[in-house]
Specification:
Elements (H helix, E strand, L loop, with lengths): L5 H9 L17 E6 L3 E6 L18 E7 L5 H17 L4 E7 L6 H22 L8 E5 L6 H11 L5 H15 L3 E6 L5 E4 L6 H17 L10 H4 L108 H4 L13 E5 L9 E9 L2 E8 H6 L1 H28 L1
Parallel strand pairs: 3-4, 4-5
Antiparallel strand pairs: 1-2, 6-7, 6-10, 8-9, 9-10
């Protein structure tokens, strides 16, 4: 319906618009399409309030879900009748379509009147369907209270998204295994941009827990770019040209010493100690811009804390220490064990497939209720894929005592999710 809040929902979810700024949005007068790509790609149609089935310009059989947004104060006959007409037509043309009703703008009423109006709208719709045909009473319709000023909108749209992901059972199984092995009390797999949770474990979703994880992700999205490393830029992720070969002869004694390069304390060697030689597989290309999907060599890490960058991929630079003895230059970052025979061009690296796996996955943690005895809960964040993040709650004592096991389980969970995403993408290309 007109002025029911459809455009505000789309802008808040997918364009990161502040709820207060939605007051200045104009009324939608034409069809607007928005593409949302997470585990699966979605195309969302924002239809004007006066749209009818005849002016939709597409058969309902092409849609997987229909979301009807109605104002919670709209108790008149016209919006209820229009909703009933849409439901009956959708059921006749596409019986498998998911029918969702967002009773929106729930924040304008008190808790008592909010529940009363919600039940009234639900009963009116069901009674109208039963009056037309008793068979329509069995049509599955999901009613949900939503508002852009709290987390109810993100929770409701996440539940709609779950019905569209065919690989959801596999993602949930991974989360269940992760929680069991890590003693996590709750875990969510979030889309970092929209803050919709793609999957969660088998335990019930507690609204305060979901709200806490969503707020923590929003904080990291806001402050993460401030800690992003320059080495995480797209230019560093692309394969580069090989470095020039070093000179064969040793440098003259009178030649100036090369500038010193910062390195961890554990790697600083004496001037007489030779630099370690690179592995044979690393001599093909020693550029720090090498990208690939192979296993990463265990290289030294800097002593500085890891940057938090949920929206971008950061890389910890690992320059080799300077040495007076001539040696082959060491790589400045971990290099894949198996390098491609030919580096792809920069224009090819800009295309989406194949994706370059980042060499560094940001992580963060926050203690919610620290005590002297170590009790309390810790909220953790781990980037899993370019747009997916794992947020989990774990007892602080378990997290402190088994931090290594926790990170170990995260690595295997990340590999499983990335494999599922790759299978989904391969299946779409085969269609």
């Amino acid at each position: 319906m007109r002025r029911s809040g459809k455009t505000s929902i789309r802008q808040v979810l997918f364009n990161n618009l502040s709820p207060r700024e939605t007051l200045y949005l104009e009324t939608t007068t034409h069809l607007t399409k928005h593409t949302f790509d997470t585990v699966i790609p979605l195309e969302i149609w924002d239809c004007p309030g006066d749209t009818t089935l005849e002016t939709l310009d597409a058969p309902l059989s092409q849609f997987a879900t229909m979301i009807f947004v109605i104002d919670i104060q709209d108790l008149y006959q016209q919006p209820i009748q229009k909703l009933v007409d849409f439901v009956i037509t959708a059921y006749q043309e596409n019986p498998g379509m998911n029918l969702e009703v967002f009773v929106h703008k729930a924040d304008v009423l008190t808790e008592e009147y909010k529940i009363e109006n919600f039940r009234h709208i639900q009963q009116r719709v069901l009674s109208e369907l039963t009056f037309i045909n008793y068979e329509y009473e069995q049509i599955p319709i999901n009613f949900q209270l939503t508002s852009i000023y709290d987390h109810s909108l993100h929770d409701a749209f996440s539940r709609v998204l779950h019905k569209l992901i065919d690989s959801l059972p596999y993602l949930e199984d991974l989360l269940n295994v992760f929680c069991s092995n890590s003693q996590a009390t709750k875990a969510f797999l979030f889309d970092t941009l929209s803050r919709l949770y793609v999957a969660t474990d088998a335990s019930p979703v507690d609204p305060p827990t979901h709200n806490l994880c969503s707020d923590y992700l929003q904080t990291l999205n806001a402050f993460g770019p401030l800690y992003r490393s320059l080495s995480a830029s797209p230019l560093r992720m692309r394969p580069g040209a090989p470095d020039p070969a070093p000179s064969a002869g040793p440098s003259a004694p009178t030649s100036p010493r090369p500038p010193a390069i910062s390195a961890p304390d554990s790697q600083v060697a004496s001037p007489a100690a030779p630099s370690p030689s690179p592995l044979p597989s690393q001599t093909q290309n020693l550029s720090p811009n090498v990208g690939g999907t192979g296993a990463l060599l265990a290289g030294p890490i800097t002593a500085s804390p890891s940057p938090i960058s949920p929206s971008g991929l950061a890389v910890s630079p690992n320059p080799a220490p300077a040495s007076s003895a001539p040696a082959t230059p060491a790589p400045s970052s971990p290099i894949p064990a198996s390098l491609p025979s030919s580096a792809p061009s920069s224009s090819a690296s800009l295309t989406r497939p194949p994706r370059l796996h980042p060499r560094f996955y940001p992580s963060a943690s926050a203690s919610l209720a620290p005590t002297a005895a170590g009790a309390g809960t810790t909220l953790t964040y781990h980037l899993i894929a370019p747009q997916l993040a794992l947020l989990a709650l774990v007892p602080s004592g378990v997290f402190a005592a088994r931090r290594g096991l926790w990170e170990y389980n995260v690595v295997f969970f990340r590999e499983g999710v990335q494999e599922i995403c790759e299978v989904e993408a391969e299946g779409r290309r085969m269609r």
